[in-house]
Design a protein that fits this description.
Crystallins are the dominant structural components of the vertebrate eye lens. It comes from Xiphophorus maculatus (Southern platyfish). This is Crystallin, gamma S4. Belongs to the beta/gamma-crystallin family. It is a single chain. The strands form four sheets. Strands 2-1-3-6 form a four-stranded antiparallel beta sheet, with no helix packed on it. A four-stranded antiparallel beta sheet has the order 9-8-10-13, with no helix packed on it. Strands 5-4-7 form a three-stranded antiparallel beta sheet, with no helix packed on it. It is built from no helices and 14 strands. Helices cover 0% and strands 42% of the residues. It folds into two domains: 8-87, Crystallins (Gamma-B Crystallin, domain 1, Sandwich), CATH 2.60.20.10; 95-174, Gamma-B Crystallin, domain 1, CATH 2.60.20. The radius of gyration is 17 Å and the shape is elongated. By secondary structure, it is mostly beta strands. The protein starts with 7 loop residues before the first strand and ends in a 9-residue tail after the last strand. The model is unreliable at 1-5 (pLDDT under 50).
Length: 183
């Protein structure tokens, strides 16, 4: 049939899909027991968050279906990928509420679509937020670049609760499942 029925990601130790590989079908808190480094990835189905450290910590990289021949293609800083998770809520609808102060206080902004530059619509820092629907990625720089932070449905009373050291959120993107092709 040729159809991929389950979510699957393949990690390769070398660039261009060379060297030892590991087929992963779900969340993994410790990839190091399967591969020592990660220089390329094939995402056959689903959206994933890759973590630089084990137990879902460290820098995060959000990637969707496709082939990534080197870690620079997923904005990686190095070949360290130690854990991964499937992003489960990618269908929408999408709704996010931003707050200018910690613990859901201050100026608010409701977001339902991607924003390549938050500063164009809002002058505040993002100090807390509520993900009401969908899954979202916060980026440190405009145009969906810089450090990435996955936010799934829930409440985040401070930047530390989504894994950030600072309140620098400059662009925001929905994590959307790609339409199924008939090929």
């Amino acid at each position: 049939t040729g159809k991929v029925s389950s979510i699957l990601i393949v990690f390769y130790e070398g660039q261009d899909f060379q060297g030892k590989s590991y087929d992963c079908k779900g969340d993994s808190a410790d990839l190091y027991s399967f591969i020592r480094r990660c220089n390329s990835v094939k995402v056959q189905a689903g959206w994933w968050v890759l973590y630089e450290r084990n137990n879902f910590s460290g820098y995060q990289y959000i990637i969707g279906p496709g082939e990534y021949t080197g870690y620079g293609q997923w904005m990686g800083f190095n070949d360290c990928v130690r854990s991964c998770k499937i992003i489960r809520n990618c269908k929408g609808p999408f709704k996010l509420k931003l707050y200018g102060r910690p613990n859901f206080n201050g100026t608010t902004l409701e977001v339902t679509d991607n924003m390549n530059s938050l500063r164009e619509k809002w002058s505040c820092q993002v100090m807390s937020c509520k993900v009401l629907q969908g899954s979202w990625v916060f980026y440190e720089h405009p145009n969906f670049t810089g450090r990435q932070y996955l936010l799934e449905k829930g409440e985040y009373g401070s930047p530390a609760e989504w894994g950030a050291l600072t309140a620098t959120v400059v662009s925001i993107r929905r994590v959307m499942e790609l339409p199924k092709s008939d090929s």
